[in-house]
Amino acid sequence: MNKTLLIEAVSVQNWTYILVGVTFAIYIGIAIWSRASSTKEFYVAGGGVSPWANGMATAADWMSAASFIGMAGIISFAGYDGAVYLMGWTGGYVLLALLLAPYLRKFGKFTVPDFIGDRYYSDTARIVAVICALLVSFTYVAGQMRGVGIVFSRFLEVDINTGVIIGMLIVLFYAVLGGMKGITYTQVAQYCVLIFAFMVPAIFISIQMTGNPVPQLGFGGELADGSGTYLLDKLDGLSTELGFAEYTEGSKSLIDVFAITLALMVGTAGLPHVIVRFFTVKRVRDARKSAGIALLLIAVLYTTAPAVAVFARTNMIETVSNQPYSDVPQWFKKWETTGLITFTDKNNDGLIQYVADEAQNELVVDRDIMVLANPEIANLPNWVIALVAAGGLAAALSTAAGLLLVISSSVSHDVIKKVYNPNISEKGELIAARISAVGAVCVAGYFGINPPDFVAAVVALAFGLAAASFFPAIVLGIFYKRMNKEGAVAGMVVGIGIMLYYIVKYKFGWLDDTIPNKSEWWFGISPEGFGAVAMVINFIVSITVMKFTKAPPEDVQEIVENIRIPSGAGEASNH
Amino acid sequence: MTPQEKAKAYWKENIRYVLILLTIWFLASYGAGIIFKDALNSIRVGGFKLGFWFAQQGSIYVFVILIFVYVRLMNKLDKKYGYDE
């Protein structure tokens, strides 16, 4: 390595140390300032968070390492099909705002199993809900801790496991000390960090490629090289030349795109760590407003990501396709050493052939590096490259903290307080909540260090489970007064059961010797999209069973009438 | 109106708003972005084919607008029935 390269490499690393250090100091400072002193503060931040603060916290809570690091990369390889994530992970907020958030806020307890248990007057329903909440949250949190480890190892050259442990300690500090209160205000800071870190490189690259500083417009603009060609036409042309499908067309079937989008939307609306955020605002109208603010803030990243995907893909193809391997830029070599870019010169011509045909393709690029390497590919200044690391950490930590709170409150509130020991004192419950948070961080860290092989597959499961269990049970609980415990429990159990069966059979291949062929999928729907089918089955089973069993008691029907009226939410939260 | 009648009338208007807004939600995403994508792709706006634009940009803008419209409608409705606070 020559001298200039060395200086450059060191200064990216120094920038990373500075930016990561400063942001971590801010998170810790906020945690000390916002210690929780009651269970109400620990579970729902005292219930007095402003709509803007809650909107920012929800946005950070929702946007994980996958949204920040993974999504633009996935889209840049999937083209049109990437729309399932873009629509699926934003459209769910419309369902949340219109069908769930205001009513759950009026109901005014601490957790999702609280609602299910009280509305369906049954500890069985409560326990089923707790199991779902734990399954969904643990699968999700393992991925976040792994994300923290990866960012640390790539940018600061520490071991992945050390990175996971540093991440665990930071989350432990503010989640255990501050509970929801600490998490809320660190998430507000983390939103600012992550959105700045995502937008700055995107704006730079948009100006470079199209001359337009707004990535959403540059996306559909003309190239800045004076050729008068639109960027998307250029990429469609490059893609077909290399034998790939046209970028703006997809390769998934219509019904599968439809089902995956629906499963992700409904799953989003049913995820407990997102739902509980709406328990933290003061009034019903604040819950509605903060859902809007959250989606607005999420949309900033989600409308930029597909633009970044197009910039990165065009840039990458132009930089490497048919270029001599001896001339590749420095970033190429750097990522090659991590094994995330591999080049094998199959025909020994010294050129890089990047084509769709597997037999002739010589280049394999891991899609996760598209966002991380993008600033380097575009030759952006070192501080911008370092900023991406701080942003990735903010995204992963904020989501991990939200999930850990769901896990710890499920144990301390839903299991210990509501079922096992109802006489536990306020102080005792708070201690139990903190101990469960510590336990949850340790389990999450263990999965981060020893990730199960099926981490990627279980993400589909997390959304599928949320779609198949919580969403129908909550919606029916609000909009169908006669829905009873028999119907709801039967619906959840059948919904989850069939979802698990489908994933185990078609995603893991555990029921046969191999993973069955796509042609055997029910209705041509992939395991990722099956949550939509499982949700419909839940609705049908719930309503059918309800018809043959007796109506819920009077007082439960009164609860339903009460949550439909927005006024009086303040008192409701004080019991 | 008795309190029960009032609550019923409020709920009915709320359901009407939700159904109208969810219809738009469906048309913008599943309609324009998925089912009618190919037909809309024959229309171009700048460098975008319209179906592709709805799938990767337009539907998201529509979602944001829908929630804020809902917030406004419901705040008015709350006031009309005296449920605002």
Features:
heterodimer; A: 575 residues; 23 helices; 72% helix; globular; B: two-stranded antiparallel ribbon; 5% strand
What does the average pLDDT of chain A come to? Answer: 87
What's the CATH topology label of chain A?
A: Sodium/glucose cotransporter
Number of domains of chain A: 1
Low-confidence stretches of chain B: none
What's the total count of β strands of chain B? Answer: 2
Described by the principal axes of the CA atoms, the overall outline of chain B is elongated
Q: What is the H/E string of chain A?
A: HHHHHHHHHHHHHHEEHHHHHHHHH
Oligomeric nature of the chains? heterodimer
Output the helix-strand order of chain B: HHEEH
Distance between the termini of chain B: 20 Å
- What separation lies between the terminal Cα atoms of chain A? 66 Å
- Please give the largest β-sheet of chain A: 2 strands, antiparallel
Q: List the strand order in the largest sheet of chain A.
A: 1-2
What's the total number of strands of chain A?
2
In CATH, what is the class of chain A? Mainly Alpha
Helix content of chain A: over 70%
Question: What is the overall shape of chain A?
Answer: globular
Class from secondary-structure proportions of chain A = mainly alpha
Question: CATH superfamily membership of chain A, which one?
Answer: Sodium/glucose cotransporter
Low-confidence stretches of chain A: none
- Total domains of chain B: 1
